[in-house]
C-alpha cells in the first residue's frame, strides 16, 4: 500500500462524525522547495504517544524533519520527500 493510501486509511479511521469537522490534515509546499504536513493528533490514540524527532540531512533538496508538538505531527522535507514524511507518520500510527 502506498504512503498516501495508508494516510487515507488513518484519516478515515479517525472520522467519527465530529473529529473531521474540527481537525484536518494539511499538506503545503515550501518555497525552498519542499513539503510541510501537519496532522492533528487531538482526540486520537496518538495524542499521548511518544515520538522521537527525526532530522535527516542528505542534501540541499533531500532532507526530512519530523516532530510531535502541541498535539500535532509536523513533517517537513525536500521536494521529493513527501512519501518519506508520510511514512514517518505511519510508523508513529502503527507503533505499539
TrEMBL record:
InterPro entries: Imm53
Protein name: Rhodanese-related sulfurtransferase
